[in-house]
Amino acid sequence: MPLGIPRTEEERRERHKRIYGEGNEPPEKRLGLGPKYESLNEVLWDLLPAMPGEFGKFTLPLPRGLARKLYGGGRKI
After folding, report:
1. How far is CA 12 from CA 1, 48, 65, 77, in A?
2. pLDDT of residue 12
3. pTM for the structure as a whole
4. Which 3 state secondary structure label does DSSP give 56?
5. Is the pLDDT of residue 76 over 80?
6. Largest CA distance in the chain
7. Any domain includes 45
């Protein structure tokens, strides 16, 4: 993970219990739905500010990764 520290297995189980309840077990293999950065260039590009009309509406000059999360774009879940 390029930014931050990955969760431990215990933190992952606790979060899963909070979201899905006590009876469900977390999957053995993680789904990997988050962003996948394969190079330092992708990390730096996501930290640069987005252009005001980049996502189809006027936005503040937020980092591209945050603006994509707030205003849509990319893969929909």
Report:
1. 15, 30, 23, 20
2. 82
3. 0.46
4. coil
5. no
6. 45
7. yes
